[in-house]
């Protein structure tokens, strides 16, 4: 990790209640985000120094952004720079806090009398708040945001951009919710901010996500809360009370590292009837790697060497690693049915169809004898995705990549439509 002295720090660009932003003279387009030891509540009506908070917050936010980036979410985060600072892309910040809620609590109950604490939102409840300390960050509607016509780094915030931020907030919340569930913690709600990258004009997740940003209840129990709400709820700020708050923040910063660790292992084993199918199989392997799923390629023929096919099957059943078999066989597909009839593991047919006999050959994969449960997926990418979805049931890191991929597909379509509309005007 770099030391603070190894970067030439320029002028201070901005300062908030808990961090400072500095330009990096030798790296145009990047900034240094320096955390502070200050903790605040109620728009800094209450504020105190908490020794070590900067390092705790920086450690937490760095782990969270690494998880999101590895999943495929676009963020401003580049890398952790020191114990108390990280490097990020320079962004012009959109002055909106996006709040996503799974469980009703806090200010939502005050603004919505009659709703009981603990009410669960499915789908998630989305809210927006305009960043204006003087007016206590008023809640805004989508119409107010559109009418504001913010223009940042040359990008005007219109309907397309609002939709992207809305959809991204949901995906980000769901990824972190899934990750925290592996630690038996309920992500109750969360606030995030977006910025416009000054170089690319892309909307990216920016600012920080640390223990000030969410409510986190171990075992879903509010009495065990580990977030900043403990500080907000203090009737009197004493050294002893601040030690309790600090221990909670440290607890989160230690647990958040575990979110980057896989909770399960698995692999895809691709069985091909001939090396002539290698190109088709390589596509499956490449797609598997994009979801973080290991993939092994083997050659065997259920017609010409059924004993060897079953020996290979037994080899991968015998080590206890969860496995999905993908059968790649053209013409008459014997691999898929033989594997499905002899293993309890999932089997996917992915035949490499040819233009001449493909329409006839595919029936050997589609029409199975009774008692066989293998599926048939023609696209190599889709076969890998389906295998990843199976592993995603038990491995949150695979699930997170799938969830981010869904978001990125949606965003690319949204931007393509915006570009097309602009060309048509």
From TrEMBL:
Pathway: Purine metabolism; IMP biosynthesis via de novo pathway; 5-amino-1-(5-phospho-D-ribosyl)imidazole-4-carboxamide from 5-amino-1-(5-phospho-D-ribosyl)imidazole-4-carboxylate: step 1/2; Purine metabolism; IMP biosynthesis via de novo pathway; 5-amino-1-(5-phospho-D-ribosyl)imidazole-4-carboxylate from 5-amino-1-(5-phospho-D-ribosyl)imidazole (carboxylase route): step 1/1. Keywords: ATP-binding, Decarboxylase, Ligase, Lyase, Multifunctional enzyme, Nucleotide-binding, Purine biosynthesis. SUPFAM superfamilies: N5-CAIR mutase (phosphoribosylaminoimidazole carboxylase, PurE), SAICAR synthase-like. Residues 266-413 form the PurE domain. Gene3D superfamilies: 3.40.50.1970, ATP-grasp fold, B domain, Phosphorylase Kinase, domain 1. It comes from the Eukaryota. CDD domains: SAICAR_synt_Ade5 (cd01416). Homooctamer. In the C-terminal section; belongs to the AIR carboxylase family. Class II subfamily. In the N-terminal section; belongs to the SAICAR synthetase family. This is PurE domain-containing protein. It comes from Seriola dumerili (Greater amberjack).
């Amino acid at each position: 990790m770099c030391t603070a002295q190894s970067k030439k720090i320029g002028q201070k660009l901005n300062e908030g209640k808990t961090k400072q932003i500095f330009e990096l003279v030798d790296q145009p387009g990047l900034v240094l985000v320096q955390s502070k030891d200050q903790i605040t509540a109620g728009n800094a009506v209450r504020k105190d120094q908490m020794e070590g908070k900067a390092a705790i917050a920086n450690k937490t936010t760095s782990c969270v952004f690494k998880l999101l980036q590895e999943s495929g979410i676009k963020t401003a985060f580049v890398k952790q720079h020191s114990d108390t600072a990280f490097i990020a892309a320079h962004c012009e910040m959109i002055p909106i806090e996006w709040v996503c809620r799974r469980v009703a609590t806090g200010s939502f109950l005050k603004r919505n009398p009659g709703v009981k604490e603990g009410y669960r939102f499915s789908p998630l409840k989305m809210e927006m708040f305009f960043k204006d300390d003087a007016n206590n960050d008023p809640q805004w509607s989508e119409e107010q945001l559109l009418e504001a016509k913010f223009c940042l780094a040359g990008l005007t915030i219109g309907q397309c951009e609002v939709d992207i931020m809305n959809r991204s907030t949901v995906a980000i919340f769901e990824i972190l919710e899934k990750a925290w569930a592996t630690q038996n913690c309920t992500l109750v709600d969360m606030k995030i901010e977006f910025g416009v990258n000054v170089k690319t004009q892309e909307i990216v997740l920016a600012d920080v996500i640390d223990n000030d940003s969410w409510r986190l209840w171990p075992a879903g129990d509010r009495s065990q809360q580990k977030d900043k709400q403990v500080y907000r709820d203090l009737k009197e700020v004493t050294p002893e009370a601040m030690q309790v708050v600090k221990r909670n923040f440290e607890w989160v910063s230690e647990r958040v590292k575990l979110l980057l660790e896989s909770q399960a292992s698995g692999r895809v084993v691709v069985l091909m009837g001939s090396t002539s199918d290698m190109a088709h199989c390589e596509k499956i392997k490449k797609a598997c790697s994009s979801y973080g799923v290991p993939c092994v390629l083997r050659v065997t023929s259920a017609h010409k060497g059924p004993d060897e096919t079953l020996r290979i099957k037994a080899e991968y059943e015998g080590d206890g690693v969860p496995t999905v078999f993908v059968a790649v066989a053209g013409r008459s597909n014997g691999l898929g049915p033989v594997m499905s009839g002899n293993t309890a593991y999932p089997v996917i047919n992915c035949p490499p169809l040819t233009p001449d006999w493909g329409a006839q050959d595919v029936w050997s994969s589609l029409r199975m004898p009774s008692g066989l449960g293998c599926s048939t997926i023609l696209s190599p990418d889709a076969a890998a995705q389906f295998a990843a979805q199976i592993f995603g049931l038990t491995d949150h890191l695979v699930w997170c990549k799938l969830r981010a991929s869904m978001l990125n597909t949606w965003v690319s379509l949204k931007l393509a439509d915006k570009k097309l509309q602009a060309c048509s005007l």
